[in-house]
Amino acid sequence: MPKSGQHTFLLEVGTEDLPARFVASAIAQWQERVPATLQEHQLRGTAQVFATPRRLAVLIEGLPPQQPDQSVEIKGPAASVAFRDGQPTPALLGFLRSRQADLQEIELRPTPKGDVVYLKQVRPGQPTPELLSQLAQEWITSLDGPRFMRWGDGELRFSRPIRWLVALWDDQVLPVVLHSQSVRIVSDRHTVGHRVLAAGRRISLSGAKDYTAALEQAGVLVSPEARTATIRQQILDLATTAGGWVDLDSPLLEEVTHLVEWPTAILGAFESRFLELPLEVITTVLVSHQRYFPVYTDERRHGLLPAFITIGNGDPAATPLIRAGNERVIRARLADAEFFYKADTAQPLEAYVAKLAAVTFQDELGSMAAKGERITALATTIAKALKCTATDLAAIERTAYLCKADLVTQMVGEFPELQGYMGQVYATVAGEPPAVATGIFEHYLPRFAGDQLPLSLPGQVVGLADRLDTLVSLFGLGLCPSGSSDPFALRRAANAVITILWQGRLHLNLLALLEEYSQQFCQQFQAKLSPDDLQGQLTQFFTQRLRTLLQDEQGIDYDLVNAIIPEEVPHLQARALADVVDAGDRAQFLQQLRDSGQLQTIYPTVNRAARIARQGHLDPHQLDLGCIQPKAFEAPIETEFYNALKAVLPTVQAAQRSRTYTDIVSALQTLAPIVSRFFDGEESVLVMAEAAPVRANRLALLGLLRNCAAVIGDFGAIVPAEGQP
Prior knowledge:
The radius of gyration is 35 Å and the shape is flat. α10 packs across α15. A hairpin with a 2-residue loop joins β13 and β14. It starts with 6 loop residues before the first strand and ends in a 15-residue tail after the last helix. It is of the alpha+beta class and 725 residues long. The strands form eight sheets. A five-stranded antiparallel β-sheet has the order 2-3-1-11-12, with helices on one face. A three-stranded antiparallel β-sheet has the order 4-8-7. A three-stranded antiparallel β-sheet has the order 17-19-18, with helices on both faces.
């Protein structure tokens, strides 16, 4: 028997074969949820989560026999209701009876509404086995995942049907029941071994601690970490045998870990002639379709050996038979790919463009051919706005014309994940310029978060045109994202537009482009919005995307993001979208100023000046002294302030044009001590003087200082450091 305070609990949920993605997700959920639940109920214990394709399990060791006693406080009636003439009223006595308490357990506490009765009780802790019976059901039914199913009658749902349930408290069966009308699953001590190695026989567990050892004897390695380590080592050994290298950082390693219960790595081979296929075609067939590991010639992955490694889940003694079966499968798949490649390259890529007319992009937006025409026109507009050379413009237009052609090839029809890549390959075979071939592939980048970004100008410009056409078109049809729903991945598309502009340092006026293209769309299609409303929605959408990327992806403090894209300052929002590269630069610059401590040297002065300048009428863009009347100066400090501005304004104007914001900070640092004396000390003046010309002058001086700082951002949105005004 276990020592007092050292009990072990086992919960195993046996199922039909689970999807690998759900297994990985369920492990992560239980690894977070189970310890948190134990802590919530003040239970000590160390939890280990196990999983295979046919089971989820948690083993908790070091559990106490009972919860600690629970101290609780319950608010009761007001004292005026609880007592009358110093005696307890029926209301108080009824409250105590409902809680099985007496008068000695209450106390009076003052509150803003008068004294209130509080009941303090110590409740004995619940026996741990009873509590775990309840928690086990919660842990099972609270798991989340895609496409859960129901079986039998009732509402019991899980990723796959549950076939058995094990719940043991040391060597005793703990009652756990899952039921829903015709489905009733009751826990016992019987689990199931490997489908082949143990012929799926039932195994009676003598105790919770015997779990991993008993299943290993039945051909089930329940620890995902142990299976991963076994697979990794077996693959390394086989790769050495084959004289090649295998990428073990691939997501495929985790996937196959959750596809097998007793892994056996098997080295297979295919005919060398298939190596004439493009490398990505072979690896797609091996990895995406067969879950095989390709064997590369070296770590640079520039070439492949005619070999693969698959992870079997059967009897290791049957390895030759399993190898032969997998080799037959891969030979057929590669032969299909070889046929598709030869058929596709029988004509140039350009020949496929006309076939796009038979492929629908969206019911109301026409075919992929029509979308290709829009992409080409928009890419040309973007290229001209960026002042591209004639050579670059020609490459961009050719890339846009061909960018979707591979969608109607046989290879992409069979392997859709190769879109773009096959376009690049077929363009190269057809003799298209390298810039065009690269651009066809790169215009799809980035395909997901963290993916590589396009590096070539054709890839960047055509990628922008493709996504902007999709965004404007779908917003125009009223198909914009709502809440967490984004079926057309428009947030990802907008994020890609911004990151491409950042990566390529492309100073494109996105605001003007959205306005122009919104007008064109509404003229060409039956839009659900007016051009102004469409542009407004897109502007708001891109503004929010830019804010999110700056804060979440670039790590900019929220108030500094507000300084670049203030919610209440439309002209600064417009400026950010007119050049998102500059907006990103200014946000990074402000963050660097804060991190280095330089922001504190100018913030108090600028912020104070900006607050007072709001009472004036100076245009927020003005950076010249035409608004000042020196004849109305009454104090020497005004003249000194004026002369200092006169000296720095040319520097600020030049810095604004060249975006060298460090020069503006230097100018503001020069002005700071003068402005400090303007506000305080013996030389100070009253800004809001009674005489209108004097007051206007002083507000204009402060307004010009504010405008100098606003070239970087709205300092009024910045949260001051502790102790600053």
